[in-house]
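Worked example 3 (structure in, sequence out).
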C-alpha cells in the first residue's frame, strides 16, 4: 500500500464522486487533506467521513470565480499534491452548440484548473517534489455523440497539463492526467437512468470487459500518483476504461 503520510494534498470537486472517494482514501493513507467544492452541504458530508485522527481542512469555494480561488489559496498551507476533480458534462449535438454553453463547460473543466494552478504558483504554495493530477476523460480518445463541448474542454486540459509538466520539471513537480471512462457516481446514475432503457444499459455495461468503474478505482490510481512511488513519472496520461477501447478502431 502506498503511503501519503504527512503530505498536504488539495482535492477539488471533493463533494461527491471521484473527489469524495479520493479524499476519504487519502485521509486513511495518512494525508492531511484539504477539500474544496462549491456545494457546501455535500462538502461537509465528505469532511465528516475523513479520518478524524488527522488534521484536515474544509474550504467552500467556487473555482469558476477568480476571487474564490484567491481566497482559497491564501488559506492553504504549502502543499505537496493537487488532485483536480471538479468537472461538468453538457451533452449537446454540434449544430446546437451555443457560445454560452462552451463558456459554462470550459469555465468548470479548463479555466478553473488553469487559474487555480497559476494562483498557487504566484503565492508559492506548491512545494518542490510535489505531484499534480488532473481528471480528464477517455472520451478524448473515444468520442461520443453530443460530446463536443465536454471532450474539447478535457482535450484542452490535457494539452495544458503537458506544458505544465515541462515548465515545472526543474522543481521536480510532477504533472499527470487520468482518463477514466464511465464511473458509477450519482451524476452517472441519474444521467443513465433518464437517458436509456434497461436493454441499452445492459449493452453499455457489456461493452466494458472489466465492467464500469467505481470512484475508488480512480482514487487508488490517484494515490499512486500522489505518492513518492511515482517520482519518475510526469507528462503522462493514464487511460482507465475497463478495456472499453481495446477493440475500438
Amino acid at each position: 500500500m502506498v503511503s501519503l503520510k504527512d503530505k498536504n494534498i488539495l482535492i477539488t470537486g471533493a463533494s461527491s464522486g471521484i473527489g469524495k472517494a479520493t479524499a476519504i482514501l487519502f485521509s486513511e493513507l495518512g494525508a492531511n487533506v484539504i477539500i474544496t467544492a462549491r456545494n457546501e452541504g455535500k462538502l461537509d458530508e465528505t469532511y465528516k467521513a475523513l479520518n478524524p485522527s488527522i488534521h484536515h481542512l474544509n474550504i467552500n469555494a467556487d473555482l469558476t470565480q477568480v476571487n474564490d480561488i484567491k481566497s482559497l489559496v491564501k488559506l492553504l498551507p504549502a502543499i505537496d499534491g493537487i488532485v483536480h476533480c471538479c468537472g461538468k458534462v453538457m451533452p449537446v449535438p454540434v449544430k446546437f452548440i451555443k457560445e454560452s454553453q462552451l463558456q459554462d463547460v470550459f469555465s468548470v473543466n479548463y479555466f478553473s484548473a488553469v487559474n487555480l494552478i497559476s494562483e498557487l504558483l504566484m503565492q508559492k504554495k506548491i512545494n518542490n517534489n510535489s505531484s499534480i493530477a488532473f481528471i480528464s476523460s477517455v472520451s478524448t480518445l473515444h468520442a461520443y455523440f453530443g460530446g463536443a463541448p465536454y471532450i474539447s474542454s478535457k482535450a484542452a486540459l490535457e494539452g495544458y497539463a503537458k506544458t505544465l509538466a515541462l515548465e515545472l520539471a526543474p522543481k521536480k513537480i510532477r504533472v499527470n492526467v487520468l482518463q477514466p471512462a464511465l464511473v458509477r457516481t450519482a451524476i452517472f446514475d441519474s444521467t443513465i437512468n433518464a437517458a436509456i432503457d434497461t436493454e441499452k444499459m445492459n449493452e453499455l455495461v457489456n461493452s466494458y470487459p472489466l465492467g464500469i468503474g467505481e470512484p475508488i478505482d480512480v482514487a487508488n490510481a490517484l494515490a499512486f500518483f500522489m505518492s513518492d512511488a511515482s517520482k519518475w513519472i510526469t507528462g503522462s496520461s493514464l487511460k482507465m476504461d475497463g478495456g472499453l477501447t481495446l477493440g475500438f478502431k
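Notes: The chain has one domain: 8-183+215-240. The chain has eight helices and seven strands.
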